[in-house]
Specification:
mainly alpha, Ribonuclease iii, N-terminal Endonuclease Domain, Chain A, Double Stranded RNA Binding Domain, 10% strand
Amino acid sequence: MQKHTNFKERRAFLKKAEEFKQFQKMMDIHFQNEKLLHQAFTHSSYVNEHRKKPYEDNERLEFLGDAVLELTVSQYLYAKYPTMSEGDLTKLRAAIVCEPSLVSFANELSFGNYILLGKGEEMTGGRARPALLADVFEAFIGALYLDQGLQPVVSFLEKAVFPKINEGAFSHVMDFKSQLQELVQRDGKGPLEYKILQEKGPAHSREFVATVSLHGSILGTGVGRSKKEAEQHAAQEALTVLQPK
């Protein structure tokens, strides 16, 4: 019976090791110390059920990854939004590194498939539990940092997180109109003018089209469910024109 149990455990271990090799290929990231990668995906419930094995859970890596994630996201936002105030930078960073965002990143990368869970946690749906997925994402960041340093973490985020910022996924916490106003005033370019060009759709689902102009030249056009939202999107487009990356 003991031999059969050991054989099953050995087979499960080899299967998981192969999954992690495939994971690294998919991510185009190759760990020098694969134990760190395994640890990043190891939940405490798994360690508790394998006390005779030298497994470590991901909680310490999660602690480190949280700090590394805040630093790398802060660095990116500081460079990308030179006119954004400290308060707005803090709000935007908080939206990016909050639990729902981290869960979204983890799900897009199928991180849940690779987590090592105890049987009880597995049976109660732990693999899809938001807090657990967010922790795994942070632990992965911590493991990658320990294994390879800061730049590979930035390269990973350039694929998995930063494009979402550029696509406006967090624009609900950003004030693009204030940023644009500050930029224009700083450069002494003159007053901005916002116009609502169009209102369309039924009353319960109205859509507005707005433009923002400088000296009669349209810098940006935006669409939104309210006039304010449309103007914000117009300002966002104008910022990309005035601050090309």
